[in-house]
Structures are given as C-alpha cells and as structure tokens.
Amino acid sequence: MTQSQAPNPWPRRVGIGLTVLPILMLLMSASMKLSGNPEAVNGFKQMGYPDSALLKIGIVELSVTILYAVPATSVLGAILVTGYLGGAVDVHVRVGDTLGNILTPVILGVLAWAGLYLRDPRLRALLPLKR
C-alpha cells in the first residue's frame, strides 16, 4: 500500500504572500479615490479626467480588488484586475508618464497572477509550467 503524499504547503503560502501586495496597493489607491484625496484629484486632472470620474473609477477598483481577494471569485477578480491595470498602463503611456509609473501596474498584475497561480492548485493544474 502506497502512502499518499501531503501537498507541499509552500506554494500556497508564497502565493498568499504575493497576493497581499497587489490587494493592499489597490485598496490604498481605491480609498484615495473614494475619499477625494487632493493628491488623487490632482493626479486625475493631470491625466485629463474630470473630477466626476474619480468616484466611479474608485468604485470599480474597489470592486475588482474585492473579487480578487475572495477565494471563491479570485480567478474572475484576477481577470478584472488585469483589465483595470491594463487601463492604468494605457493612461500612463498616453500622458507620457515615467517608465516607473508605467511599469507599476504591470508589476502589480504579474504579482496578482503569480500569487493566484501559487495559491490555487486548480490553476496550476490548468496551466502547468512543466509536464
């Protein structure tokens, strides 16, 4: 009789750790938008958005972040976070922002998917890195 091997807990633990950073960054960003933070308002004006867009974008950002943070909806959330962050990259490129500001949403997206990949064995089975 073969003894079944317990799954390695480290990928899940590292995945949870990688998941926390994008969630915290997105929650901070959403809270700045939802609170009407003067820095966020000025940043939006510089990017060509009207003041009225700040609340709407903050609600979208908070919504996709919550979907990503909840395990039952994390895959849908990751897809929506990717779309949201893609829009952020587009805006930063359009206004001629610095490379650091352009790459920040890209890095957050990579961390979000890496965290999800490591913490969800179903995703690892669907997209194996090696066979």
UniProtKB/TrEMBL annotation:
Keyword terms of this UniProt record: Membrane, Transmembrane, Transmembrane helix
Places the protein is found: Membrane
Membrane-crossing residue ranges in chain numbering: 14-32, 53-86, 98-118
Origin: domain of life: Bacteria
Keyword Transmembrane helix tagged: yes
Keyword presence, Transmembrane helix: yes
InterPro entries: DoxX (IPR032808)
Main localisation: membrane
Its membrane topology: Multi-pass membrane protein
Protein name: DoxX family protein
Organism: Nannocystis radixulma
